[in-house]
Write a structure and sequence with these properties.
The chain is mainly α. The chain has one domain (36-255). The protein contains eight helices and six strands, in the order αβαββααβααββαα. The strands form three sheets. Strands 1-4 form a two-stranded antiparallel ribbon. Strands 2-6 form a two-stranded antiparallel ribbon. The chain has a two-stranded antiparallel ribbon with strand order 3-5. The longest helix is centred in the C-terminal third of the chain and has 53 residues, at 157-209. 20% of the residues are buried. Residues 1-21 form the signal peptide. This is Secreted protein. Keywords: Signal.
C-alpha cells in the first residue's frame, strides 16, 4: 500500500510540469473598443477623397469657368456692315452671321480651356491633392505604417475639410488670375484672327457680287479690363463650393477600411 502511494506521488510529480505548461484559454476583452472603430489605409483614403474633389467639384469648376469665358468672348464679337448695292437678290443677314460666329467662338473657347486648365491647375490635380490630404491628416492623427483609425478622422473632420477647402480656394484664385492675365489675351488674338479671316473671305465673296461696297464686315473690340474680368470669373464660378460634410468623410473612411 505504501508502495502504491509513493508511485502516485511520483507520477503526479512527473505530470505537474506538463499541467502548468498547457495553454489556458483566455477570452480577450473588447469591451473598451467602440463598435464603430476600425482602421483606415491613409493612401486609399486620400485617393478616394481626392477623386471626389476632382470629379465632383473641380470638374464642375472648370465647366463653369469655360462657359463664363466663352460667353465673355462671344460678347466681344461685334459685327458691323453697311448695306451692299448688289446686282442680284443676294442679301446679307448680319445678325445671323454674328450668331453663327458666336457659336463657333464659344465652341473654340470651351475646347481650348481644358488644356489651359490642366497646365495652370496641376497644383490641385488628383495626385497633388492626395499628397496634401495626407499631410493634413498627419497633423491631426497618429500614423502607424500608413494606418490610422477612423475615429481620429471623424473627430477632426471639420478641421480636415476646412483646411483642404481653403487650400483649393486659394489656388483657384491664383489660377484664375494667371489664366486671365497670361492665357486669355493670346487666346483672344487667335480667336479674333480666325473670325476676321472668315469675315474677310465672306466680304471677298460679296465684293465679287456687288457693284459698290460702302464698307466691309469686321469683328471689333479689344480684350481689356482684365481686373474686372478676373473678379467676374471668380464670381461666376462662385470660387469653390464647399459641400463636404462630416458624413461624406465617414463614407470615404468606410471605403478605405482595412479588413
Amino acid at each position: 500500500m505504501l508502495f502504491l502511494q509513493w508511485c502516485y506521488i511520483g507520477l503526479f510529480s512527473l505530470l505537474l510540469p506538463i499541467i502548468y505548461a498547457l495553454p489556458v484559454s483566455r477570452q480577450q476583452d473588447y469591451s473598451s473598443v467602440p463598435d464603430n472603430y476600425f482602421v483606415v489605409d491613409i493612401h486609399s483614403f486620400s485617393s478616394i477623397y481626392s477623386t471626389h474633389l476632382s470629379f465632383d467639384h473641380l470638374d464642375g469648376t472648370l465647366s463653369s469657368l469655360s462657359k463664363a469665358i466663352s460667353l465673355h468672348f462671344q460678347k466681344l464679337i461685334q459685327v458691323t456692315a453697311q448695306p451692299f448695292d448688289l446686282n442680284d437678290t443676294f442679301t446679307v443677314d448680319v445678325e445671323l452671321l454674328k450668331g453663327q460666329l458666336q457659336g463657333a467662338v464659344g465652341s473654340f473657347i470651351e475646347d481650348s480651356m481644358p488644356t489651359i486648365w490642366n497646365t495652370r491647375a496641376a497644383v490641385i490635380d488628383k495626385a497633388n491633392l492626395s499628397i496634401y490630404i495626407e499631410q493634413v491628416i498627419m497633423q491631426y492623427c497618429y500614423l502607424d505604417q500608413n494606418i490610422i483609425n477612423n475615429t481620429c478622422i471623424e473627430n477632426n473632420a471639420h478641421e480636415i475639410v476646412s483646411t483642404v477647402d481653403h487650400y483649393i480656394q486659394q489656388h483657384l484664385l491664383n489660377i484664375i488670375t494667371l489664366i486671365v492675365m497670361q492665357d486669355l489675351p493670346p487666346l483672344f488674338e487667335t480667336t479674333q484672327s480666325h473670325v476676321n479671316s472668315i469675315l474677310a473671305h465672306f466680304g471677298h465673296y460679296l465684293n465679287r457680287k456687288a457693284s459698290t461696297i460702302n464698307t466691309g464686315i469686321v469683328m471689333h473690340h479689344s480684350f481689356e479690363n482684365i481686373d474686372d474680368l478676373t473678379v467676374h470669373l471668380q464670381s461666376a464660378i462662385k470660387l469653390y463650393h464647399s459641400s463636404l460634410e462630416k458624413l461624406t468623410l465617414d463614407k470615404y473612411t468606410l471605403l478605405a477600411r482595412v479588413n
